Amino acid sequence: MAEQAVVARGSTSATARRTRRVMLPRDHRGRGDTTGPGCMGYATPTPEPSFLRPRHTAMKRTLLLASTALATAALSTTSVAQADNAGPRTPPPVLTGVAWHARTITENGVTHTVPEGSRAGLTFGADRRTVAGHDGCNGFSGEAVVDAERSTVTFGSEYASTMIACYPPDHVDLIPSAGTYEARVTAHILTLTGPDGHVITLGR
Fold first, then answer.
1. Diameter of the chain by CA atoms?
2. Which end of the chain has fewer surrounding CB within 10 Å, N or C?
3. Mean of the per-residue pLDDT values for the chain?
4. b or e along 47-56 (b: 16 or more beta carbons within 10 Å of the residue's beta carbon)?
5. What range(s) does the DUF306 domain occupy (predicted)?
6. Phi/psi class of residue 107: alpha, beta or left (left: φ > 0; alpha: ψ in -120 to 50)?
């Protein structure tokens, strides 16, 4: 009994420490107090295992990439839908490679009708830099820069021409003036509107 008393009073004995921890008052143990480090029910938070952290990071990265891909796809779909709603783009008028026959010529506010059956007309080269024509009597050729996107034709100031003498109505003043003409094609009719009100209408 003496030995047991000494063990109970000692503070450095392993047996005594175990005895104090196990032999708690019944009412204390009965209340189930598990919040303190001195109680049997104290639970220390378990840290996340280190081998799970890389996996979690990879999953987050995968989810982020998937969200980005979905957002990009949505933007692309919206852009395509907007382009479709805008409707087809009107192609520029075809001027080159067509034999345009002169119909009327307006100069100084006066419109002259080209006689039926006249050879007068213009043909723009496929290189979009030349024009060849006929005024009813003589053939001619010169520089003519075709800009299909802007629907304009810029004529040069010099022409090469034959020198056959003839007079109206066979001859018509068809040679364009130097400068830029607006080119508008409607229902197979080409209208060239140039400087000083010079207007030439031609048909296919």
1. 154
2. N
3. 74
4. eeeeeeeeee
5. 95-171
6. beta
Tell which residue, 140, 144, 152, has the closest CA to residue 125: 144
Range of the domain at 136: 99-203
Q: What pLDDT is stored for residue 92 in this prediction?
A: 61
The CA–CA distances, whole Å, from 87 to 38, 74, 82, 121 equal 80, 21, 9, 35
Q: Residue 97 corresponds to which tokens in the numbers above? A: 């490679």
pLDDT tens string 84-119: 555 555 566 688 989 999 999 999 899 999 999 999
3-state SS assignment for residue 182: strand
One domain for residues 195 and 132: yes
End-to-end Cα separation, the chain, in angstroms: 133
Same-domain pairing of 193 and 103: yes
Q: Are 192 and 183 in contact (CB under 8 A)?
A: yes
CATH number at residue 148: 2.40.128.270
pLDDT digits (tens, 9 = 90+) for 5-27: 444 444 444 444 444 444 445 54
> Does residue 123 lie within any of the structural domains?
yes
* Domain assignment present for 170: yes
Smallest Cα–Cα separation from 147: which of 200, 73, 93?
93
Q: 140 and 160 in contact (C-beta within 8 Å)? A: yes
Burial class (CB in 10 A: 0-12, 13-18, 19+), 83: exposed
